[in-house]
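Why should sequence recovery work at all? Because a backbone constrains its sequence more than one might expect. Tight turns favour small or flexible residues, buried strands favour hydrophobic ones, and helices have their own preferences. The token representation captures these environments compactly. In the example below, the structure is given first.
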């Protein structure tokens, strides 16, 4: 259902994108063939409005690509492993079929993939907190910090604005094409925002964030995430890590 949502929302945004490029500035009335299917998927996902979301984009829009690199080695999650190379991944649903789109989409997916390794450590951190085992708590927090550092280095490597870098992304081209493509197409659509990525909200709750002022923050757990993701993140927020801890 999420792959279907990505596909239909991509078609809808392509329609809106083309209208705006031809000077349209008012309300966008989608053709029935788009509107009917988009609303049907929206109802199945229990969302208030049709929308394109970063929540499903990294999770359900990737595929592995065969390369000549040896991917059978034992991975230690280092950035030298083929797993973290953009050559190993492609997008299922493409709009512009450009290097910029591919780099950004797959980097979002890889971010979620790397940070997924933090989930066991988050669970064990709470277990060790109940046992008052400070040494083990620090060990788990160091694992989390290490994975956050890997994400930072991976992003810098995969999205680079230097023309001489193999993963060069033209910032002007991205700003004119990929960036505005995912803006809101109707009242109530939140638009595709990095804040909608599961890992971002998880770490917000993990460090004790209690208040969300934006429309995205207020609706994301209630109307956007699946109940399994939403309930896990809520449980993390029930006992966040604080400076006092």
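From this structural description, the recovered sequence reads:
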């Amino acid at each position: 259902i999420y792959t279907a949502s990505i596909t239909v929302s991509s078609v809808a945004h392509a329609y809106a994108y083309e209208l705006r490029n031809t000077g349209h500035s008012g309300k966008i009335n989608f053709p029935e063939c788009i509107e009917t299917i988009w609303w049907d998927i929206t109802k199945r996902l229990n969302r208030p409005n049709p929308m394109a979301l970063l929540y499903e984009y990294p999770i359900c829009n990737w595929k592995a690509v065969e390369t000549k690199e040896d991917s059978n080695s034992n991975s230690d999650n280092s950035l030298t492993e083929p797993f973290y190379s953009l050559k190993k991944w492609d997008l299922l649903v493409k709009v512009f079929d450009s290097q910029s789109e591919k780099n950004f989409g797959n980097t979002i997916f890889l971010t979620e993939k790397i940070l997924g390794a933090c989930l066991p450590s988050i669970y064990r951190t709470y277990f060790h907190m109940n046992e008052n085992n400070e040494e083990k708590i620090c060990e788990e927090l160091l694992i989390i910090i290490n994975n956050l550092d890997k994400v930072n280095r991976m992003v810098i490597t995969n999205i680079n604005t230097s023309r001489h870098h193999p993963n060069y992304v033209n910032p002007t081209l991205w700003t004119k094409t990929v960036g505005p493509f995912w803006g809101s197409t109707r009242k109530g659509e939140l638009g595709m925002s990095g804040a909608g990525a599961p890992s971002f909200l998880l770490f917000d709750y993990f460090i004790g964030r209690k208040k969300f002022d934006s429309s995205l923050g207020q609706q994301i757990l209630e109307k956007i995430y699946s109940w399994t993701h939403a309930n896990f993140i809520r449980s993390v927020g029930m006992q966040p890590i604080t400076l006092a801890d």
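A few observations help interpret the result. Residues 12 and 35 are 8 Å apart (CA to CA).
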